[in-house]
Design brief:
This protein starts with 17 loop residues before the first strand and ends with a helix. It is of the alpha/beta class and about 650 residues long. It has helices at about 25-40, 55-65, 90-95, 165-180, 225-235, 270-280, 310-320, 360-370, 385, 390-395, 410-420, 430-435, 465-475, 490-495, 500, 515-520, 525, 540-545, 550-565, 590-605, 640-660, and strands at about 20, 70-80, 100-105, 125, 130-135, 150-155, 185-190, 200-205, 215-220, 240-245, 300-305, 325-330, 345-350, 485-490, 505-510, 535-540, 575, 610. It folds into 3 domains: about 55-255, Rossmann fold (3-Layer(aba) Sandwich); about 275-385, Aspartate Aminotransferase, domain 1, CATH 3.90.1150.140; about 430-660, Rossmann fold (3-Layer(aba) Sandwich), CATH 3.40.50.1110. The strands form 4 sheets. The protein has an 8-stranded mixed β-sheet, with helices on both faces. Strands 15-14-16-17-18 form a 5-stranded parallel β-sheet. The protein contains 21 helices and 18 strands. Helix 4 packs across helix 5, helix 6 crosses helix 8 and helix 7 (about 310-320) crosses helix 8 (about 360-370). Strand 4 and strand 5 (about 130-135) form a beta hairpin.
Length: about 650
């Protein structure tokens, strides 16, 4: 191998991979922006508040003069998605980069042009004359002879955020071989198109598979650069890894917010909608069902000649799956499964992408097909992509689809590991949303909630003054324990016998019935700060939505609560208990589900935040609240309801307190 020259100012070790970042603002950037704005103003064109385009790793690398690759002999793992913001390919850019020698190309599934749906042999790139080694043919990892004369592997491929999409396995296998050959790996990062905050189980039991390289949830919420860091650390690869980070990307961005053009990552991944639906519909792709290949909307429909489409759509819509609806549909694929055969099935309509749960939806689809067509549907083949046989067996035999609760602990453990490798923040709609308590205004108390008698005479959080004062009087008489678990929120906290249910820990209950998230934020200095809790458990949002608050408002109010609670206690864990369904407020349940999804995203992206789903166990087989878990008012939990909640919450508290 040719000797390499290390760029000045770049330090790295195999245990501590280097992440290359460039300051978001510098003198040249500010000057260019000022010049651009002046030109726009002179032309009397409308001015954008911010330049819209996110810079990918290749854009940052090129702008900075290819410093990280100077003096290197490069093998490039890429395909047609490896392009810069100006449309030039990464192949072209590295081929002409100063002091960079591009030695060979490596292609993943679908080939260097991303057009083929078959195993692929080695070839020669007609534009450059370089050898193209296929990593989706006779081998799926680079062989030693393919790496001859290379001292750096560069990876630049657009992923779509789902575990069984194979490009990330290609990256992992290449990292393994690079570590063995003592070759550097540079990952040019790109956006996760379905955001970096959405994380959904279930997990694969086996790893090392091409569609399950690492044990992780179905939707991982990470970029390829972050996954590379995770693979290297958690699989002990010992790879000399560098990640060229993006600029301008936030975890909460869907791809259509990046300002980048969509390039189909594979022949049948033709839109952002299809990328969002892929983990759900793709779950059944190994079964005897068409997933729309050979039609104009793959992964937005599924079917087979034997499916009774009207019954299927009716059954799935009755499940009230969040963010999605099903339209009975007949179609005839012109390729792939059931080519030229008319199929009954469903067109999948994504109605609310942030509320959509692909894991629950995919399992519900598989369960419905098994229930309606047990002879024709090969349910066991769902496991060919999920690699979780007990879950598949349970999903096929239970009267209802598998409940997501069994993998919540695995999700919590994964998110703890995942957090160590994240490179980007979630961002916020405005700094005030995070930095300050909510203003002293709130929605009126919801019907059916217990409230202090002065509520009718006062508005805003002040109406709870007597309740807060009563807590302070109680504290003066008997000082409560500090440094334990604080339960705060509305009447669902008030009625919970937390001292008995969580007796192994010091517990303080400061719930006040009828309150909203803003009310708890307003009084945070009096009902949170004095107890210096290690864990804060918040149940609120129920009254908020019932009084007209949107899901987005609930999210912003929760962020404000987190900021306020951490002003004097920055290391506290904050746990949000999902808003519960109830017959009394069933009309509000769709918005409550959206609010739960929004807050869950905040928790998954933030530090020392947890979201616990306490809503699912309250629903029966018919998808409605279980009457035995509620009081006669059909709003507040009964003793049995709290008995269902306590064993779900207790293990999480044990884990968080042990971790500290």
């Amino acid at each position: 191998m040719a000797p390499s020259r290390e760029p000045r100012g770049i330090a790295h070790t195999r245990r501590n991979p280097t992440v290359h970042r460039t300051p978001v603002e510098n003198g040249r950037t500010v000057a260019r922006r000022a010049t651009l704005l002046a030109i726009v103003a002179a032309l009397a064109l409308p001015t954008l508040a911010e330049p819209p385009a996110v810079l990918n790793g290749i854009d940052v690398l090129a702008r900075d003069g290819f410093t990280a690759l100077r003096g290197r002999r490069v093998g490039l793992i890429t395909n047609h998605t490896g392009v810069a913001i100006d449309g030039r390919s990464t192949i072209e850019l590295l081929r002409t980069a100063p002091e960079v020698t591009l030695v060979a190309l490596f292609s993943p599934e679908h080939g260097i042009t991303g057009q083929r749906d078959e195993k692929i042999g080695h070839s020669v790139d007609p534009a450059t004359g370089l050898k193209v080694y296929s990593l989706y043919g006779e081998t799926r990892r680079p062989k030693p002879e393919m790496l001859d004369g290379i001292d750096t592997l560069v990876y630049d491929i657009q992923d779509i955020g789902t575990r069984f999409y194979t490009y990330i396995a290609t990256m992992g296998l290449a990292m393994e071989e690079a570590a063995r050959a003592r070759i550097r790996v540079v990952v040019l990062d790109r956006p996760n198109p379905i955001t970096g905050v959405r994380v959904f189980g279930p997990f694969n039991e086996r790893d090392g598979e091409f569609t399950a390289y690492h044990k992780s949830p179905l939707v991982h919420g990470m970029t390829v650069g972050e996954l590379a860091l995770l693979f290297n650390a958690e699989r002990n690869l010992g790879c000399d890894l560098h990640v060229i980070a993006m600029e301008g990307w936030r975890r909460d961005m869907w791809f259509d917010a990046t300002g980048q053009r969509w390039i189909n990552p594979s022949p049948n991944m033709r839109s952002l909608t299809q990328a969002a639906l892929y983990p759900a519909v793709g779950m059944i792709e190994a079964c005897k069902v068409s997933v729309g290949r050979g039609t104009d909307t793959p992964f937005e429909r599924f079917g087979a000649p034997w499916i009774r489409e009207l019954e299927l759509a009716q059954r799935l819509n009755a499940a009230n799956l969040a963010g999605v609806r099903f339209v009975p549909f007949r179609f005839t694929p012109n390729a792939s499964k059931f080519r030229d055969q008319e199929c009954g099935g469903a067109q999948v309509i994504l109605t609310h992408r942030d509320a959509f749960d692909p894991a629950a939806t995919g399992l519900a689809i598989a369960h419905a097909l098994e229930a309606l067509h047990p002879q024709e549907f090969d349910h066991e083949n769902v496991n060919r992509l999920l690699f979780n046989e007990p879950l598949i067996r349970a999903n096929g035999t239970n009267g209802t689809p598998v409940n997501p609760l069994p993998w919540q602990r695995e999700l919590a453990e994964f998110n703890t590991v995942r957090a160590r490798h994240l490179l980007y923040s979630a961002g916020a709609t405005g700094s005030s949303d995070r930095a300050a308590p909510a203003p002293a205004t709130a929605a009126p108390p919801a019907a059916g909630a217990s409230a202090p008698t002065e509520a009718s005479a006062k508005t805003g959080p002040e109406k709870w003054e007597s309740a807060i004062a009563a807590f302070e009087t109680q504290d003066r008489k008997s000082s409560p324990a500090t440094g334990g678990v604080l339960f705060v929120g509305s009447s669902s906290i008030v009625g919970w016998p937390t001292a008995r249910g969580f007796s192994k820990h010091p517990v303080v209950n400061r719930g006040f019935g009828g309150s909203t998230i803003r009310d708890s934020t307003h009084y945070v200095d009096r009902i949170v700060t004095p107890y210096r809790p290690r864990v804060i458990v918040l149940y609120a949002g129920d009254n908020d939505v019932a009084a007209g608050a949107s899901a987005d408002q609930v999210r912003r109010d929760f962020e404000s609560f987190v900021a306020a609670a951490r002003r004097d206690n920055p290391r506290a864990w904050i746990v949000f208990l999902s808003i519960k369904p109830s017959e009394s407020r069933w009309d509000h349940w769709p918005e409550m589900q959206k609010a739960n999804a929004a807050v869950r995203s905040v928790c998954q992206a933030g530090e020392r935040l947890r979201f616990i789903d306490v809503a699912s166990p309250l629903l029966g087989e018919n998808g409605r609240p279980r009457a035995e878990l509620f009081r006669n008012d059909r709003l507040h939990l009964s003793e049995a309801g709290y008995a269902a909640w306590t064993p779900i919450v207790a293990p999480v508290l044990d884990e968080l307190l042990r971790a500290d």
